[in-house]
Amino acid sequence: MATRAFVVMLRTKVHDHIEWPVELAEFRQLVGAAGFEVVDNIIQTRIHRHSAYLLGKGRVEDLAQRVVTEQIEVVAIYNVLTSMQKYKLQKLLRCDVLDRYEVVLQVFEKEARDRVSQLQLELARLQKSYPFIKVAVGERLKREKPSRGEASRGGGEYAYHSKLQLVRKRIAKVKSELSKLRRENKSRLRARRKLGIPMVCLVGCYNAGKTSLFNALTGAEKEVSERPFTTLASKVSHASNPGVFFVDTIGFALGLDPSLISAFQLNLDDMRASDVIVLVVDAADDIILLRMKIHSVLNILDATGIERRRIILALNKADLAGTQLAEQVIPFIEKQFDLEWVAVSAATGYNLSELELLIRRRYASLA
Ligand SMILES: Nc1nc2c(ncn2[C@@H]2O[C@H](COP(=O)(O)OP(=O)(O)OP(=O)(O)O)[C@@H](O)[C@H]2O)c(=O)[nH]1
Ligand SMILES: [Mg+2]
């Protein structure tokens, strides 16, 4: 039986009536993918976050009642919490509280099978949990009254410091292993670059169809699925399209926390090293969601240092989008974004040669 969860969102942009339902729906999907059954949504609108509990205290107390009566085990919060907020909420709600960072991390962890992804995720997990352990144990020590003089307090503090030291040691170990792997990856990228063959990276949100396109363009048979984050570690094509190296890599989610993105440095290196970036979107998505996803990915690419002149937009799933493509998506893209685009379908093979042509032209223009 799935773990019963509430989804909680604090809306701070009080004038936004369009984006928040989309963000909520996307988050609910991730909470589901993390293995939870969403029993209800609780939404509060206030301009300022409550510093201790995120939501107003009255709301949290109501929630605590419902957690008991409705047998809730997890409260998943759309917003990103400080360690102190998480600690206080868990204490008051008496159940696990996960914020968006942790929910997404949990979904990633379900998919991580290769060493690099596992290490990158372990680091992301440790960096989030270290300040939380500090707060949680610190608060406990403050409350504990030494029962037999100072000696027992000393024991508690000793355990506290040795626990933190263990986590710090593990962080250092994982970081050093990752930097070794990152150096190796960079030297592979340099060797590939020396061959003078264009490198083309497929980027976009999860489920856009990056791996499906990668398979269609290269004849590979990598796993494709509707689960979020099916692909974590990058895959590079070799044989069947010898004129181009295609790179399939990790997918993003709407509003992904920047500190979580920065955990995936090896994937970001693959993107940075590519000549051309194909930003893949699902053209059958609702137009508001589509706009938010494109902005989200462009922001990540900007922050990663990838220039706009390297980017081509692939409107994938043309077969599924039907008339929405010509009537809504294309006029919208033309109006909103200064990006060269091509409508394709990885499923039917529609316009793939057009995409390859655009890639070659763009590569030539970069030289
Ligand atoms: N109808 C249709 N479905 C497609 C097309 N391309 C991909 N899909 C489906 O969309 C879903 C996601 O495809 P993937 O290729 O795994 O997507 P991805 O972008 O690699 O996703 P992540 O690896 O999770 O980031 C799968 O169910 C595919 O079968 C397409 O052109 N048309
Ligand atoms: Mg994939």
Which hetero ligands occur in this complex? guanosine-5'-triphosphate, magnesium ion
Along the chain, the helix and strand elements come as EHEHEHEHHHEHEEHHEHEHHEH
Fraction of residues in helices? 40-55%
Mean pLDDT: 94
Give the overall silhouette.
globular
Distance between the termini: 56 Å
CATH architecture of the largest domain: 3-Layer(aba) Sandwich
CATH hierarchy class name of the largest domain: Alpha Beta
- Integer-rounded radius of gyration: 23 Å
Account of the 3D structure:
With 367 residues, the chain is of the alpha/beta class. The chain has 3 domains: 3-108, 3-Layer(aba) Sandwich (Rossmann fold), CATH 3.40.50.11060; 114-177; 195-366, 3-Layer(aba) Sandwich (Rossmann fold). Helix content is 54%, strand content 15%. The protein has 13 helices and 10 strands. The chain has helices at residues 19-33, 57-69, 83-93, 100-111, 115-143, 150-194, 210-218, 258-261, 265-273, 287-304, 318-321, 323-336, 352-366; strands at residues 3-11, 36-45, 74-77, 96-99, 199-204, 235-236, 245-248, 276-282, 311-316, 340-343. A 6-stranded mixed sheet has the order 6-7-5-8-9-10, with helices on both faces. A 4-stranded parallel sheet has the order 2-1-3-4, sandwiched between helices. β6 (235-236) and β7 (245-248) form a beta hairpin. α1 crosses α4 and α6 (150-194) runs parallel beside α9 (265-273). It is globular. The chain starts with a strand and ends with a helix. The model has no long low-confidence stretch (mean pLDDT 94). Bound molecules: guanosine-5'-triphosphate and magnesium ion.
